[in-house]
Write a structure and sequence with these properties.
single chain, 239 residues, alpha+beta, four-stranded antiparallel β-sheet, 3 helices, elongated
Amino acid sequence: FYSMTKKTTTEAKGKKKAQTTLTKEVNLVETLEGKQCNSLFWSPAGRHIIMAGLGDSASGTIEFYDLETKALVVKEHYRANQVVWDPSGRTLATVVSQPIKGGHFKFSMDNGYILWTFQGKQLHQQSYETFYQLIWRPRETLLTKAERANVVKNLKKYEREFDKADKELAFKRQLDATKAKRSLRSTFRQRVARLKDFRRQQKAERMDLTDGYDSDDEANYVTKEVSIETILSTKEEVV
């Protein structure tokens, strides 16, 4: 990885503050070795890069790398032949698609896509019998430069608001899941009670068919207890 600028900082002297200047110069930032990838995909937002092994002969390894934190997450999408970033740089798709010109595609059972966050967390997976192309909707710039600067300035405030909203959403999902489990348990118990009642109603008919034998009466059964001893291990000691 190379940087196209060089940062130079001058020390503060007297009343003069330290100054940082950027000059156009190619500088080596970092080298990653031993990577089995044949394609690189930079995030539109910068900082993150995808190192992918795409194609029939590749392993399908997808490596998510953060150039600032040096965090590396390795995932896999077997037979993936495309990686497509969304315009915001927050989400990307790995795709298995067949040639758009048609014809026989021997890997059609793998057709589809997987959506990931830029950090490598899988969001969604979808399969298709025929799948040719995935294209993201263009993303307009909705905020002015001053509005974007204000968002960055108040980022901590927005993080607290989003964290609160996430916790409320997680609690609601947990509550809905609990309600669904209770509903299933109640339905199961009602079904068992209905079947038991149905069996009780058929008791007279069953006894008529078996010459008065009641299979529900414990007195009609003989209980035998059998003990089986098994030697798990032995140890000999010479005295």
